[in-house]
Amino acid sequence: MLTCFSHARNAHAIPITLVTKSSLSAWQEKQSERVKAWLMATSFSNEVGKTSYIPGDDGAMAEVVCCVSDNNGLYDIGHLPLSLPVGLYYLADNLSQPDYFIGWGLGAYQFSRYKKPTREAAQLYLPTKCADHVLNIVESQYLVRDLINTPADDMGPSELADMAENLAQTYHARCKQIIGEDLLRENYASIYTVGRASDDAPRLIDFVWGNGSHPKVTLVGKGVCFDTGGLDLKPSNYMLLMKKDMGGSANVLGLARLIMQAKLPVRLRVLIPAVENAVGGNAYRPGDVIKSRQGLTIEVGNTDAEGRVVLADALTEAVSEGPELLIDIATLTGAARIALGTDLPALFSNNDAVAEAVIKHGKAQNDPVWRLPLFELYREYLNSQIADINNNATDAYGGAITAALFLKEFVPNNIAWLHFDVMAWNVRQRPGRPQGGEAMAMRALFAYLVERYAR
Ligand code: BES
Ligand code: ZN
Ligand code: ZN
Q: Of 56, 175, 296, 365, which sits most exposed with the smallest number of CB within 10 A?
């Protein structure tokens, strides 16, 4: 159990009353003169997140009141676990939908691998009726954050693979890896080539879970554990955050955990090309040509467009068994962030019905995604003089689209495919969303999969 929750509630537990913005003045009217005076004195108001600690006659805290939005904002009480005094609390009113508990859990997160947490989180009583769902979401999202926040020296391809193996073991999935030169022998030249300059050998992580007779759902995650840019080296300010370039694979592992913990009746497969895009005498070079698993030859126009190259071979393997649904998540382009900012993942899909359903769930889960087009007329930007395709478009405009079109070359049209280009990082601190690694599109996808597959 996470320390920010408690299954039990004792006599000392302090109630938290949530009052919606629009009902706040009516609620305030009903309070005793003493409480009214206190709220006035502590300048309590109908701003979402405003909080007042109301003392009892003995002066000790008797109640917490917090203003929330009218439409059940996931993060509305995300500030409480690390701002309330340490102790046990419970949600007192009829507004206690699971989302508030999830927001509490997300707000209690602290990355403590290298430094003691600044403080303990306050504890919230978690009623049994929503405990399984809330804990699954919060624990899976912690996993994603931890994976991304861990620096590349402790989360290289081998450590990322260890994490996948651990997860597979917990849920009795079968996990295998194809490592180093075995990638060449087994026809994964694109994964090998991108990752060969690193001391930590490139690999393809492949795990399978569930009953073989259930519908096949396959997740592919970009696992670039560090992206220096390769010989097309990134300037230092762009390189600084690049431990997060395995954020796609972290999200995919988080989603896999959600699916397995909830025992969704699917046959799940997770494929993660895990590499470090490093600099060295044996690094792949601009101008090199790689023969992909599918057969297409790829000219390396830019060694920094490595994500699409490693994903190409993983996608080829993914489609070889004809899954019913194929989802990839990748920190693929800076261009997607220019287009949509850091909080809004770009979604590309060859299937309108699935894309629209995921967008709908994204809104409902406070995990929004925005669709961009697979605009075929830009495909010509990827033409190469000497190979079938170039990994770097001749025109930088529409860079998220050209990257998606590159991936599309490896996915046949009859397979429903969703591609997410995500930031996987909160660039600033907000309630429920600490600065650092973040799950993006994961809760939207899980809700969609539950609707589609849960019995
Ligand atoms: N990992 C980066 C993309 C990225 C950068 C994602 C910053 C999120 C934040 C990717 O490998 C990359 O470097 N892409 C290049 C592609 C270009 C060379 C065609 C980019 O987006 O600039
Ligand atoms: Zn790159
Ligand atoms: Zn990258």
A: 56
